[in-house]
Structures are given as C-alpha cells and as structure tokens.
Amino acid sequence: DDKRPALVTTTLFDRVQVCEDDLGTGATQVTDAIPTTWYVRVMFDELLDPNIEELVEILDPDTGLGTDQFTGTIAGTNPVSLMCNGVAVAYDGYYSPSGNSITWPLGPSLVIQPSDTSAVATGAECTLTLKPEVIVDKDGVAITSGDTGPYTFKIAPLVLESTDPAPPEDPADPDVVDPAAPVVLTFNATIDPASLAASEILLEQVTACDAAAGIERIPAITQDLTEGGPQTLFISDSAAGADLAFVPETTYRLTFTDTNEVADLAGGTGAIPGAADLTICFTTDVAQ
Question: How many helices (H) and strands (E) does the chain have?
Fold first, then answer.
C-alpha cells in the first residue's frame, strides 16, 4: 500500500521507521506491545465521519460545572472488535482528524485504548477488526472489506525489569542498605503477589556474597500498592523484627530457583532468572 507511512519524523532530532521504505513489503507483526501502556492507532487516508466520536464536556472537579473543554470517546460507536486470547477486550479511545502519513502522530486515525491493561495477559495474542458499518468517510462511504482485518499483534511476555538493590558489581563490596527497606522486584506488568511462592526463593544470611552456603531465612513476599505499585513485589526476612525488613548489620544473599514462576493478574506467566543469572547480595546498615 503506497499510502502507508515509512520513515516518519517524530521530533526535530528523532525519526521512527513505521513501515519499510518499500511500501509494498508486508508489515512486521508487533510482538512486544508494552503490557501496561499498549494501545492501537489505526490510520486512514482520508477524514472519517466525525460522528464516529462523541465529544463530552470536561467538568470542573470542584464545582461540577462545564469548562468549555471537551474530550472524545468512541465507547458509544464501538468501531472495532478487539480480542486478546480469544476474549473480547473492553476499550475506549478517540478520533483524531489531524495528521497524515509523514506526521507524528500519524493521521487521520482512531486511537483504541483498552479500558484495563491488567485484564489482558502478558504474551497474549490479540486481533483488531474494523467494523465497516461504523467506520465511514465524510461522504458515508464505508471502508472496503479488504481493509477490515483482522490485524494481529502480541503483548510482550512477563519479565523482571529491575531489582532494588541491584546485584553488586563487585561481590566483595556489596551495597549497604537500610534494614527497614525490603528488596523490590519490578516487573513489566501488574503482578499477582500470590504467584511467587516462598519455596521458590533462597534467602540466606552469609559471611560474604561468594560464601559456599549460608543460614537460610524464611522470606516474606508482599505487595504495597502505595509504596511500590502493582508492578512490584517486596521481599524481606520474615523474622527480622518489628519495623524491619532485614536484620541490621547483616549480609544477605537472595536467589531464585530455576523452576520459579510468576504471573500477572490476568494469568500470563513468566519467571525470575535463576541463581546463575541473578544473585542479589547486600549488607544492612545499623538500625535507625
């Protein structure tokens, strides 16, 4: 399709290769849509009937009065079918009449936003199908049947993004941390705190990070939506004492079994790297 976007300038110094320069080449399927922020933008080569969108006035949160500012919604017209792993996904979005094939964002376009990204599993296979009875141009002409899709994409798999503290660069010189602060595991999706079992964690008090063995401790696994958010898990020593995550002035080593499994709230599964790839070691400071 020679009307598809190719290399598009997004800012003064940045460009995005949306499609191949040879516009006759088939598009590459997206397989790594960000689990917490994904959306779909459907670009058209002409303006749509604006009635595909309803404009709703934004009310002042304090007075409840109108602000003369409006936001768009397509919840009432429902112009596409969005499915992930064979299940319909609730969505809203808006119509953007601006733009073309060389602008950023592209346009004119429909922006489809899932109502709750946590309801879609990581690794899910998704399809979007346009509804020709709803999507028409300003003259009332519907999109052709060959353009309705389904268009397929995948949500990225569940992975551990970071740990705090991070693994020490030098095992002989581990970070000194506040004993009241738990180890924070951050994932790329909303995580189910019940999916990681204590039996999949090895928490040890050690004399040194490279010690052959240590004294095993029973880990506590929690989630604090206020302090860490839904993408995090907290790990601490269950016997550390009141208001403490770990025993003060102690070196800890934390690893995970090779068979561990974690899951997001929608049931998508992944794993934390095992001991060969991830060893967190740190020394706790004196109690404050």
Answer: 0, 22
Residues 120 and 36 in one domain: yes
Q: What is the pLDDT of residues 95-152, one digit of tens each?
A: 999 988 888 888 899 999 999 999 999 999 999 999 999 999 999 999 988 899 999 9
Count of domains forming the chain: 2
* Stated pTM of the model: 0.89
Determine the structural domain holding residue 93 and report its residue range: 7-154
**What beta strand segments (E) does 12-136 contain?**
14-17, 40-43, 54-59, 66-73, 80-84, 87-88, 91-96, 109-114, 125-130
* Residue 27 · residue 153 · CB < 8 Å: no
271 vs 179, 203, 275, 277, CA distance in Å?
27, 17, 12, 12
CATH number at residue 264: 2.60.40.1220
In a domain, 2, yes or no: no
